[in-house]
Design brief:
With 253 residues, the chain is an alpha/beta fold. It contains seven helices and eleven strands. α1 runs parallel beside α5. The N terminus is likely disordered.
Length: 253
Amino acid sequence: MAPGRDRPFFGRPWIDDPYARALRTGRGPLYLRRLTSPNHPDDADDTLGEGDLLPLDVERWCAAPDAADARVLDRCTGPVLDVGCGPGRLVAALAARGVRTLGIDVSPDAVARTRRGGGSALRRSVFDRLPGEGRWGTVLLMDGNVGIGGDPVALLARLRAVAAPGSRLLAEASPHDVDERLTVRVEDAHGRHGRPFSWARLGATALCRAAGPAGWTVTGRWTAEDRTFLELRRPHPEPRTAPRTADGRRELL
């Protein structure tokens, strides 16, 4: 048995598990382990093995923005909310450009690292009350964060409430054509892990399908550095039309 195998951590996911340690060091390897078969998150599957480890790209998250990130940053108009900001590379880059940006993350280590890098961040769940609700010009959902909560439509609907009318949501999809609801846990190379939680994986097609019911319109899609991105727009509300009188004239509102 490998050293540390089956030594769980008992705190909340992303906080007291190996993710926190990886953020402090800036290094992996780190994984999400599937604990259920796709789309059956309540049914534990004892047959899942090493092939069901989904790598997390900690080193890239902790590095400076790459060329694919730069294309996303160029589309941002402030104020910007980065949901699940992690170590804050995008928050810091936008702050350096003079764009008002806030990162939110449930991990205190993520928030601390974002602040050390020159960004502004709060320890907050996206489903909690947030500053500036209804006034954000751009919302970022990067690095697999479409999976937050395990219900993409509910997540996108929540973000529609946070965003301003006419705003954009820049989301990163899985590079694979997947649409999965899972129970997972964060795990390191020694088998140390945290508690299970709900997650989702969506490719571009599935993300497009989830956008409409949540009140978003898909306005762009592109691939860079083997990563896939979508731009969604929150439509402006339809202008209010005055009712007509019996002779066909508009009534005064």
